[in-house]
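dumping the sequnces here before i forget
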Amino acid sequence: MKGVRHYPGFLAMAVACLVILYAPLIVVTIYSFNGSTSITSWGGFSWRWYADVFTGPEAPRFKAAAWNSITIAVIAATSATAIAVAASLAMIRGGRFKGKSATFALINLPLMVPEIVIAVATLIFFSAIGLTTGYLTILIAHITFCIPFAYLPIAARLQGIEDAYEQAARDLYATRWQAFRLILMPLMMPGIISGFLLAFIISLDDFIITNFVKGAGMETLPTAIFGSVKQGIKPNIMAISTMMLAVSILFVTLSYYVNRIGQRTRS
Amino acid sequence: MSTAIDIRSVVKRYGTATALHGVSLSIADNEFFTLLGPSGCGKTTLLRCIAGFEDVTEGEIALFGQNIAGLDPNHRPVNTVFQQYALFPHMTVLDNVAFGLKMKGVPLSDRTARAGKMLEMVHLSAFADRLPAQLSGGQQQRVALARALAPEPKVLLLDEPLSALDLKLRQAMRVELKTLQEQTGITFIFVTHDQEEALTMSDRIAVMSQGRVQQIGTARDIYEAPVNRFVADFIGETNLIEVTVDRIEGETARVTLPGGHAITCPAAATTPGKHHLSIRPERLSLATTGDLTATVERVVYLGTDLQLLTRLPTGEEFHIRLQNSARTEIPAPGTTVALHLEEGAARLLAD
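..and the predicted 3d for all of it:
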């Protein structure tokens, strides 16, 4: 069979995709080390905009926003992962039950519904039940939309684990809980970690829903960056974006390797 | 001898499908008992009902007199060796073997010592710190055995444990299994579809088909005195020919063979008329005048044996096995031979 490289137009298509996807990221990354105040002309290599993020006039705002982002991402990813583990056990080990496909659709719905719709609906819902928008509403919204992202790798992992392992544990006098804790959970762990990392990065990155439900005075990193950019793009925004990019790449890579290790240990 | 397992009229249904149609059987303490049958006959379902992975729909399973139907698997003093072993991949061999003891609350030093002893028994002491993935199939199989035997169950269940091994290993494991059973004195219930495995290891065999027990007996019983066509056909090789039963007197029948010769043979059928006769291919010899005549179609040389594929005058295929020796005269294809039936070679079957 002919390799994909030999199809006509492959090179042009590949180059176009790579340039469109990654050129802006590369430009932002390079200019975050720009020594001048301009965002277009190069003034030599410098760390000044990174220093500016931590010590400059906007530093307190960014620090508060980063703290919110990270705490929300940790709590939301942890909760979503716990819920996703329970959901995957019910879906994959729970036998047949009525409304199983409907449940599956419901778990994964947030992946398919346009985010703006969820954002509007969530805001309307919070105001209808009289919940003041703020940290708590952001957290609730984040837990919700993180569930499918945590669910997918966990469910995929669980699907690949034969139920003979749990049966063997039960047969060897383990209670239901012991069989889960000592056998099934360690076997699921690569999926759980991978799901957690994915949920964490999704929460850390989210802008649209967060912007709707955050309330006045409450900022996460993405909304703080957006607010700052509205007053004109300064190189410190590039520095902060580059740092977020680095964190994202780190987490996605971790998630990928954890999954790979998991696949190797599966006997 | 006391009864280890007493299965009384066990029925298992999955929705509208019935996997077990009222199975009853008794297994004695210290017995090597085999459930033998083709796939889908209900043997594994029955084993899973004893282990507690499946609930019985009707009936009772008693373990040393105590009804265990309804108990969770962890409350049954019964352990299982799984078909694919199901060794815990994230635990060392030693931890795998000690797992049951740990769950039973045996203190660390005791359970390590006992698990070590079990590994010694299956000749794997040197592998205690390995992970299961680092062992060969045969070694994993022995770890699975050690793990299931370590908590000293009253009954050990084995679900086709040899099916994943190659032939040489399978033959060696048969001997090892039988020795282990005699050493430990634990009742073994062994599930297999391999009749040779069943015949070589078992004290008694239950032949199952379509959710029912067809016959229970020693290897010799079921091979030499099958009660029906299924058992005769499933165990070993046999010739099933249709015959007319003239009369039945107790356990014997007077039967007319194709070709008109009449013989007396043991019978499992009870009514005169058309029935099937089972004749084992190795219980025949060539003679000058015999009970049957057949035309040789093909001779297959098997080394220790010669197999003659012949056809009766009625058109039915008929197989004969002759032991190979220098004195054996090999009939040429196309010749007609006369066959002498050994005493008790033929047996009348119920359908």
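Chain B touches chain A at residues 51-53, 72-74, 78-80, 82, 84, 86-90, 99-100, 103-104, 132-133, 147-148, 151 (CB under 8 Å).
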